[in-house]
Amino acid sequence: MKTFFQFKKQRELGEIISDSFGFIRHEYKPFFSTILKICAPFILIYLGCMVFYLYATVDMFDFNSSSRNGLFSGGIMLLSVGLFVVSAILAYVFASASALHYIKNYIHNNGVINESEIRQAVYQQITGFLGLGILKWITLIIGAMLCFLPVLYLMVPMFIVFSIYVFEDKDVSDSYSYSFTLIKDEFWMTFFTLIIMYIIITIAGYAFSLPASLYSMIKIGTFSIELDPSDMSSFFDPIMILLNIIAYFFQYVLNLVLVISAVLVYFNLNEKKHLTGTFEQIESIGSDS
Description:
The chain has 289 residues and is mainly α.
């Protein structure tokens, strides 16, 4: 019988990092299949917009086209960027919402997943997720504009704000304000966890981008004489597009590990302040007796 993965407990930094990947090993089949079923349309739109963006970028640097209209080409480029950004936001927000509600459903049902409940919860709260996401990025952008240090501080509460929104059942404004309260006295542990996880995910993302980089280097080295610098369209062939799609997709999947680590950080902070999981375990022992 499959063991239950305990979220509601205190963890040290190393445990949070190892358990972020441990939950993936523990639940990878139902976890990824559920998220893909909910997010598949948005993933396909995101990848399609990414391909459109790549072709628009290539077209911008095709200086051989005599029929080019500069204004039209610039408009296509702006359109591709806009569609790519919007589709990426929707894909990542739906993935984060699906992962968080999967974990919430997993905890509530003691490891038994109800896919229809997860889907319903995601669509009920998606507007709140989008609003909270906008508030989160406005906060980080303002922090970055002010100075380097403020944005480093603001990254910490923003790391757990979605977890608070889902597991505390608070509204957007309360989740936002409570994130600052929850990290109080535990800032540095949360900060180092965030930094280490970002480094791990970034390195892993580069690893998945390596085939596309190697292919481009090989192509430049092999066909350097034949390639026309004024026409880069020949550089992006179907293989290059496919390798980029694979890289973007796996970077999308890796983002889910960050979501899991944010959940573990949230429950660690919540347990230190409120001992919620400890009291629940005591109550369960008492009821079993």
